Amino acid sequence: MALFPSSSRPRTLMEQLLARKIEAAAAAAAASASASAHELPGPSGGSRLRRTDSLDSTSSIGSLGSIVLGDDVCRCDDCLLGIVDLYVISSEAARIKPSGWRKIRNIVQWTPFFQTYKKQRYPWVQLAGHQGNFKAGPEQGTVLKKLCPKEEDCFQVLMKDVLRPYVPQYKGQVTSEDGELYLQLQDLLSDFYQPCVMDCKIGVRTYLEEELSKAKEKPKLRKDMYEKMIQIDPNAPTDEEHRAKGVTKPRYMVWRETISSTATLGFRIEGIKKSDGTSSKDFKTTKSREQIKKAFYEFIEGFSHALPRYLQRLRVIRATLECSDFFRSHEVIGSSLLFVHDRKHASAWLIDFAKTVQLPENHQINHFTTWKVGNREDGYLIGINNLIDIFDEMDAEIMAASTVSDSPVSTANTSSGSSSASMSPKRPTCEANEEMGDQQPVKSGTSHVLNIAPPEPSEGRAISYSDGDAGCGDHKSLKGRKEQN
Predict the structure, then answer these.
(1) What are 268's strand-pairing partners?
(2) What domains can you pick out in the chain, each with its CATH number?
(3) What's the whole-model pTM score?
């Protein structure tokens, strides 16, 4: 049986690497099966497969041969690299720690599930992260995410913070039928019909300093990471790495941030799903400002109301971050902004806090200073500011194109029967932004902040406010804040 079923979509490099690793491991396991048959006798005297926890690093190599990776498999770098690590293990490790059987497919396979809201049926789509970590929630408008104690701690604090309206609502723990613990969260897509979704990872790095230090303790050359590196940039490895045909994990972790816009702009696009169901995660090398703008234009194409609402929402989020006790006291790593719009609505939320950790006592960061090992700066505000700048540029470009198309010259050409048309899109007048309320920039000291007045909650909207949550009140801007003209 083929490891990857035939498909018109070409395999990614990570899929090719995974296939080779798995096939090699399966072949080695098959060759040694007869020799080890006396150790694991089956019912008929043959060898019996040792069943282990699919999340355990000692999962059986033999069981690997039965995996068929279809189009619904999570193919993110972390998942695929993790699977390669998981199954390239020694025969000695494969003989230890037997435990209860869980289907090994759960590591890599994700099946879209459907929920019914207002008689509309739609698939909940996770663009980034480990897709097997999610399942349908027991209540309408909820989703379950596999429990991460650090993330639960964050949500418990966030539910009492001014950031509460800008993160998924946390509804407590849920135990599934198999005994797994999950966080029950608000499903941010429940009030949207056929939504477009974009996940942007925020910050100048996506790994904790502790992860980097741990990887440096006993670094070893990784051939799979070397092959991934040369596939993207053959000149990236040093001469020594080329000779060894391997790179260390710390080296790969740092390099991976430099090939996207993470290191330069403080954010990167993780994935985009359009309203027609098509999706893409092919943004790992989307680095330049122009490449980012092109992707953003494609994301909002046909939804001209989305851009001004995203821009307004981002400004509100930035102002709220500056007066948030949670933001002031935490190192925010690997968190994303989730952008969602449909024909009527558009909004954005902060999501994913599994790597967000509380800062040590008496250690302060401003989320804007350049990161150096030891200072724990995450560059979160660098990413937010650049997102706002880019959306501002796009908005100005669209408005300029609209002005040109409405000019007397254009009108005269049209009335005289000219067939020429503006090459740039014209943005129609948007409806009043009910979701964002009356949010007008006002000056406060030396930086620009927003006067945030929460609107009355309206039925059917994806955003909800509670008294006192939507505004910051008087606050001091964080040091290093980039002023917006």
Answers:
(1) 201
(2) 13-107 (no CATH), 194-204+266-414+424-485 (3.30.470.160), 209-258 (no CATH)
(3) 0.62
